[in-house]
Amino acid sequence: QVQLVESGGGLVQAGGSLRLSCAASGTIFNMNSMGWYRQAPGKQRELVAAFTSGGGTNYADSVKGRFTISRDTAKNTVYLQMSSLKPDDTAVYFCNAQALVRFNYREVWGQGTLVTVSA
């Protein structure tokens, strides 16, 4: 199966930390295309953090300085270290990447992992 599997979500108090993981498997993935998105109830999905084609990183203003995206290319895994969490960070977090499917790169999404930050 071609898939992205997120893990690491859970319930945490404001000010706490969590580390999310996204494991890619089943085909070749463009590791430079991988990123994290989130969707809170009643809101549209938004970009949280991602690697850029230029080799850098891109963060939403709301998480810059608190979240860090990293990767282990040997394991085909991307991480999102989240610190100083706020109730506004509560959302389902999704991993996204370009995957080689039927000789073409296609966009693939993970199933999501829920992060709940209590006040």
What's a quick, concise take on this entry?
The chain is mainly beta. The protein has no helices and 11 strands.
Mass-distribution shape = globular
- The low-pLDDT segments are none
**Helix/strand/pairing class, anyone?**
mainly beta
> Could you describe the largest sheet, including whether it forms a barrel?
7 strands, mixed
Q: Cα distance, first to last residue?
A: 39 Å
Number of strands: 11
Number of helical segments?
Answer: 0
Helix content: under 10%
- The Rg value, from CA coordinates, equals 14 Å
Sketch the topology as an H/E string, one letter per element.
EEEEEEEEEEE
Tell me the strand percentage band.
Answer: over 45%
Mean pLDDT: 95
Structure notes:
- This protein has 119 residues and is mainly β.
- The protein has no helices and eleven strands.
- It has strands at residues 3-7, 10-13, 18-25, 29-39, 46-51, 57-59, 67-72, 77-82, 91-101, 104-109, 113-118.
- The strands form two sheets. Strands 2, 4, 5, 6, 9, 10 and 11 form a seven-stranded mixed beta sheet that branches.
- β5 (46-51) and β6 form a beta hairpin.
- The radius of gyration is 14 Å and the shape is globular.
- The termini are far apart.
- The model has no long low-confidence stretch (mean pLDDT 95).
Topology:
Elements: E1 3-7, E2 10-13, E3 18-25, E4 29-39, E5 46-51, E6 57-59, E7 67-72, E8 77-82, E9 91-101, E10 104-109, E11 113-118
Parallel strand pairs: 2-11
Antiparallel strand pairs: 1-3, 3-8, 4-5, 4-9, 5-6, 7-8, 9-10, 9-11
Descriptive terms for the model:
0% helix; globular; four-stranded antiparallel β-sheet; seven-stranded mixed β-sheet; 119 residues; 11 strands
